[in-house]
Amino acid sequence: MRLISLQYLRGIAALMVVCVHLSVQLQRMEYQGYWPDWAASGVDIFFVLTGFLMWFTTAGRQQTPLEFYRRRIVRIVPLYWLLTSVVVAVLVLAPQLMQSVQLDWVNVVASYFFIFTPSAAGRMEPVLLVGWTLNYEMLFYLVYGAALALPARWRFWATTAVILALVLVNYPVFARTDVQVLRDASLMLEFVFGMAIAAWWRRVAAVDRRPGPGWLLIVVGFAALALQEFLLPPLPSAIAGGLPAAAVICGALLLERSGGLPEWPALRLLGDISFSLYLSHPIAMSAFAQGWRRVGLTSMPASDALFCLAATTFCLLVGGLVYRWVELPLTRRFNAHTAP
Predict the structure, then answer these.
(1) Tens digit of pLDDT for each residue in 180-224?
(2) How far apart are CA 313 and CA 316, in angstroms?
(3) What's phi and psi for 98, nearest 5 deg?
(4) Which end of the chain, C or N, has fewer beta carbons within 10 A?
(5) Three-state secondary structure along 148-197?
(6) How far is residue 33's CA from residue 200's CA, in Å, rounded to a whole number?
(7) Regarding predicted confidence, which is higher, 103 or 312?
């Protein structure tokens, strides 16, 4: 069963991350106005969706840990390794083109194996910057895949217990104080939120088919995400971003169940290309922004707005091409060679 509402949300979440990364390039063009940095919460939506989909697609089905790991590796690793290799090649051959990343071979090796290590710039991030979220995801897959070896009634609580333990010890690598870290370890709880939503959806989802509750949860969830950047002191990520993201996902599911979800082919396509868009857009945006500045377009009237529109369009185009000509062929080839 393919839930189109979640496909829409995958696309929206990826576009939110593209949006928040526009601000980095705008700052290099001396833009100093407001920017919706809360769009980084696209990551929170991704994490809750991951927890949901892993539970939803495995509950009630026989799947060994090895088969689960094989599927996840085929889905994530080939494209991520390929684009990581593109960044490494540029670092070696034309380092002057890199705006945010410096060559550090320990960090490079760790990046391929989804291990958090401090980069040369002093941040806990891989060479393909958005890959830090995949480090979290691969850790979740490791825990959840192992839980598949347990009786079905224990899997949820075993996974939750391990993730909670990781959060409580703050995931040891994040205990360091000499590096700048990305978000906080409570992000891991967002996978649990997604699992809980999937368990609810499979067993006791409300039978009320009115669209109102779905729309209400979506609006309240996105409003809470937008307001989180104004919270002082900031709340842990799982509360500030994870709970509103969970509300949005619950709302989308209820809205689809009510029959009140319109058919948007463009949004469905955006969901299809979301992984390629997410991984490729830092490379595409950096290249586009450098070209934009080099030809002197920053002096045009309304340059900032035009740049945002053009850069987003370019990232979408590159993401679509990567999906069609790289992600799909890679996934099919690796599935053909690794499937039992």
Answers:
(1) 556 778 899 999 999 999 998 877 655 556 667 889 999 999 999
(2) 5
(3) -85, 130
(4) N
(5) CCCCHHHHHHHHHHHHHHHHHCCCHHHHCCCCECCCCHHHHHHHHHHHHH
(6) 42
(7) 312
Q: Print the domain residue range for 129.
A: 4-338
Residue listed under structure tokens 């994490």 = 47
Q: What are the C-alpha distances in Å from 106 to residues 21, 94, 134? A: 26, 19, 18
Residue with the two structure tokens 């576009």: 15
pLDDT band (50, 70, 90) for residue 171: low
- Distance between CA atoms of residues 199 and 178, nearest Å: 40
Could you tell me the two tokens for 320? 């679509």
In the DSSP assignment, the letter for residue 236 is: P
Tell me if the pTM is above 0.90. Answer: yes
Domain count along the chain: 1
Strand partners, 275: none
CA 155 to CA 8: how far, in whole Å? 28
For residue 187, give Cα distances in angstroms to 92, 168, 279, 303.
Answer: 33, 12, 20, 36
Rounded distance between C-alpha atoms, residue 31 and residue 279, angstroms: 25
Residue 169 and residue 172: Cα distance in Å, rounded?
Answer: 7
* Sequence-distant (≥ 6) Cβ neighbours of residue 3 within 8 angstroms: 253, 256
